[in-house]
Specification:
This protein is α/β, with parallel strands linked by helices. It is built from four helices and four strands.
Length: about 100
Amino acid sequence: AELGIRHILCNIWTDNRAFYTQQFGELCRLAAKYGQDVNVEFVTWASVRDLRQAAQLLREVAQPNVGIVVDALHFHRSRVQLQELEALPREWFHFMHLCD
């Protein structure tokens, strides 16, 4: 926060859904104290593999400072359709990642 960081990027690398949901929520609550948002990036070989799982996590955590990072490469690999993005709240998308 002292460096002016407003957006945090994270991935989920454990299959223990209850654990990662609780920990992600805790990270969001901590980041909120500093005016930061926490953005999960879905990666096809991680535990949160697609947009549907990322959206489910954000709904379960139900914090105002959550977000989803769309990485163009992982977006393509996970076969996400543009209509899936359009159906989600716009405030969940703070930035995207253009990958090599």
